[in-house]
From TrEMBL:
Source organism: Actinoplanes awajinensis subsp. mycoplanecinus
Superkingdom of this protein's organism: Bacteria
Domain FAD-binding, chain residue ranges per copy: 3-326
GO function term, MF aspect, one: FAD binding
Keywords per UniProt: FAD, Flavoprotein, Monooxygenase, Oxidoreductase
UniProt keyword Cell membrane present: no
Name this protein carries in UniProt: Monooxygenase
Length: 416
C-alpha cells in the first residue's frame, strides 16, 4: 500500500508527486491517458511558480527553453504591467507549452522515486484506495484528486463544486504565421474582439482571444481555420498569414470552486478544486502552488512527523487563494468581453491607470504573478543570501524548514 495515490498526471499531480517523494512518502500517480496530450492548454509560467521551481533546483531547464516575457496583462488591456518592479529574481513570465512542462515535471517525479502509471482510468474510491476501470484496486492511505474540472475523485468523495455555467467563449489556434507580429505577446483589442499572439517556438504561434459572436450560454461549435482566419482579420485587420493549424480549440468561462479541499483522506488540487476562464494564464500556476502547499504537509503526516491537523491548514490556506483567483478571472473576463461603448470606455480608463499609477500596476502584477500570497502563518519569503554564500532557494531544496533572520521558513517558502 502506498502512502498516497495521485489521480491525474498533469502539472499539479506531477509536482505533488515530486514533493511527496522529497518528503519521504511513497506515491503512485495514475493517469487515464496512455500518452501525454500533445496539445498544451497552459502556456504561461508566472514568477512565483519559477521561484517554486528554483527552490527545488529544477528551474534551469525551464529558463533555458521558455520564452521570457517581462510584462503581463490584466484583462487584455493594452497597457501592460511591468514585472521589473517585482521583488523576485525572476521578474518575467515564461512561455512554454504545457506538454513540455509536464515532461520536465515527470522526469523529476520519477527521478525522486514516484511511480507513474498511464492508461489507468479511475472509476471511484474504495475503503482503502481507488478502483480502476479494470476492477483493480490501487491501495493507499490518502488519495489526491488532481484530475481536472470533471474530477472523478471529487465526485466520488461527494464534494460540492458550486459556481456558474459558461456564458461566453474564447478560442485559440496554434498555427504557423507567415507575417507574425513584430512584438512578442502582441495583443490587439477593440469592439470587434481581442486577440493575443504568443510564440510557441518551432515556427508555431498561439493566437488566443474572444469576440462578440461567442457570447451566450450555448456551445458555439468546433472552431475551424476559416473561422479563426475571418475572426482574426476582423479584429486585427490581418490574419498574419496563418496556415497549417496544429490545434484549434474553444474554452468557456464556467467558474466553480470545490467547497472543501479536504474531506477525510481525500484531497483536491488544481483544476479539480477550481475552474475559471483562463484569463492571465494563471490556472496551471495556482495548481502547482496548491501542490507545493500540500506536498510537504501530507508527506510530514504520512511519515509521522506531524499530526493530521496539519492537513486542515491546506484548505484554510489554499481555498481563499482559489476564491481570489475566481474573483480576478471573472473581473478580467468582464474587461475582455467589454464590446459595448461603455465597456470600451472602462477598458480605456483602467488601462491608463495601469500606465500612470505605479502602485496599482504593481499590486495587480503581484496578484497575477502569485507573489502576494500570504497565509495566516506568514508571507512568502523572497530570495535572500546567507553569510556562507548560500541562498534561501538553495537551502529549501532539501524540502525542510529553513531558519532565517525573518523567521522559520516552511518548505513551501512561507513563514511559519
Amino acid at each position: 500500500m502506498d502512502d498516497v495515490v495521485i489521480v491525474g498526471a498533469g502539472p499539479t499531480g506531477l509536482w505533488l508527486a515530486g514533493e511527496l517523494r522529497l518528503g519521504g512518502a511513497t506515491v503512485t500517480v495514475l493517469e487515464s491517458r496512455t500518452e501525454r496530450d500533445p496539445h498544451s492548454k497552459a502556456l504561461t509560467i508566472h514568477p512565483r511558480t519559477i521561484e517554486v521551481l528554483d527552490s527545488r533546483g529544477v528551474a534551469a531547464a525551464f529558463l533555458a527553453e521558455g520564452v521570457r516575457i517581462p510584462s503581463g496583462h490584466f484583462g487584455g488591456l493594452p497597457d501592460r504591467m511591468d514585472f521589473a518592479v517585482l521583488d523576485t529574481p525572476h521578474p518575467y513570465t515564461l512561455a512554454l507549452p504545457q506538454a513540455r512542462t509536464e515532461e520536465l515535471l515527470e522526469i523529476r517525479a520519477r527521478d525522486l522515486g514516484a511511480t507513474v502509471r498511464r492508461g489507468c482510468r479511475v472509476t471511484g474510491l474504495t475503503g482503502d484506495g481507488v478502483e480502476l476501470a479494470t476492477g483493480e484496486v490501487v491501495a493507499s492511505r490518502y488519495v489526491a484528486g488532481c484530475d481536472g474540472v470533471r474530477s472523478t475523485v471529487r465526485a466520488a468523495a461527494g464534494i460540492d463544486f458550486p459556481g456558474t455555467e459558461a456564458g461566453t467563449w474564447g478560442w485559440l489556434g496554434d498555427v504557423v504565421l507567415d507575417a507574425p507580429p513584430e512584438r512578442s505577446a502582441a495583443s490587439i483589442a477593440g469592439p470587434h474582439g481581442a486577440v493575443m499572439a504568443v510564440p510557441l517556438g518551432g515556427g508555431v504561434t498561439r493566437l488566443v482571444g474572444s469576440d462578440p459572436s461567442c457570447d451566450g450560454p450555448g456551445w458555439p461549435g468546433e472552431l475551424t481555420l476559416d473561422e479563426l482566419r475571418t475572426t482574426v482579420r476582423r479584429i486585427a485587420g490581418t490574419d498574419f498569414g496563418m496556415r497549417d493549424p496544429v490545434w484549434l480549440s474553444r474554452f468557456g468561462n464556467a467558474t466553480r470552486q470545490a467547497a472543501e479541499y479536504r474531506r477525510g483522506r481525500v484531497l483536491l488540487a488544481g483544476d479539480a478544486a477550481h475552474q475559471h476562464f483562463p484569463a492571465g494564464g494563471v490556472g496551471m500556476n495556482v495548481g502547482i502552488q496548491d501542490a507545493h502547499n500540500l506536498g510537504w504537509k501530507l508527506a510530514a503526516v504520512v511519515t509521522g512527523r506531524a499530526g493530521e491537523d496539519l492537513l486542515d491548514t491546506y484548505h484554510q490556506e489554499r481555498h481563499p487563494v482559489g476564491a481570489i483567483l475566481l474573483e480576478h478571472t471573472r473581473a478580467q473576463t468582464a474587461l475582455m468581453t467589454g464590446w459595448t461603448p461603455e465597456g470600451q470606455a472602462l477598458r480605456a480608463v483602467l488601462s491608463r491607470l495601469i500606465a500612470t499609477v505605479p502602485e496599482m500596476s504593481r499590486q495587480l502584477a503581484e496578484r497575477l504573478s502569485g507573489l502576494d500570497v500570504t497565509y495566516p502563518s506568514g508571507r512568502r519569503v523572497p530570495e535572500m543570501s546567507f553569510p556562507d554564500g548560500t541562498t534561501l532557494f538553495e537551502r529549501l531544496r532539501t524540502g525542510e524548514h529553513v531558519r532565517t533572520e525573518a523567521g522559520l521558513v516552511r518548505p513551501d517558502g512561507h513563514l511559519g
